[in-house]
Design brief:
43% of the residues lie in helices and 13% in strands. By secondary structure, it is α+β, with helices and mostly antiparallel strands. The protein starts with a helix and ends in a 23-residue tail after the last helix.
């Protein structure tokens, strides 16, 4: 997913909301130079969505963090699927973790729920089409997530053909 200026701003707002006064626990318990590594692992089956946004949180918290993606958005997850590995200063990884997972869980949840409906009607000629009713500030992200779940965007011919750049600005 392309991180547009609006999405970048949303990430900044989320970080500011979660850490406006810092991360006192991590700062008091973890030495700043202590290296660490974390693996994002699915705690249930579903469809992955929002990984790029989720991982961007880590690099915004600390540019010294490196990331290895294991799977891509739209992938089906089993419980225990390894999604990505994050390496760098342990304190920075811990600071970014909650905000990062908030994005990942919300968008993967939307994709997973959408995928259930798409699967239920797969044997018919019907198709699931998204709505313009979205959470304020999250329209682009939620439309992306429903597309990862197999939903048609109401302006697009197929769920995998659509790109965010082709969506009308009034969508």
């Amino acid at each position: 997913m392309i991180i547009t200026p609006d999405i970048d701003k949303l990430i900044d707002l989320a970080i500011m909301e979660d850490y406006s006064s810092g991360d006192a626990t991590t700062q008091s318990l973890i030495p700043p130079d202590l290296p660490g590594e974390a693996t994002l692992v699915s705690d249930e089956a579903g469809i992955l969505a929002g990984l790029d946004i989720s991982l961007k949180v880590f690099t915004k918290i600390d540019g010294n963090i490196s990331i290895t993606n294991t799977i891509a958005d739209g992938s089906r997850l089993d419980e225990g699927s390894q999604i990505a590995t994050i390496s760098g200063p342990l304190g920075s990884i811990l600071t970014a973790e909650r905000t990062s997972l908030n994005f990942l869980r919300k968008l993967s949840g939307v994709a997973t729920e959408t995928g259930k409906y798409v699967k239920e009607i797969a044997h018919t000629n019907a198709r699931i089409v998204d709505t313009r009713k979205t959470t304020p500030g999250f329209r682009t992200l939620e439309k992306y997530a429903v597309r990862m779940g197999g939903c048609l965007l109401y302006t697009s011919p197929s769920p995998r053909d659509a790109t965010l750049s082709r969506m009308p600005s009034s969508a």
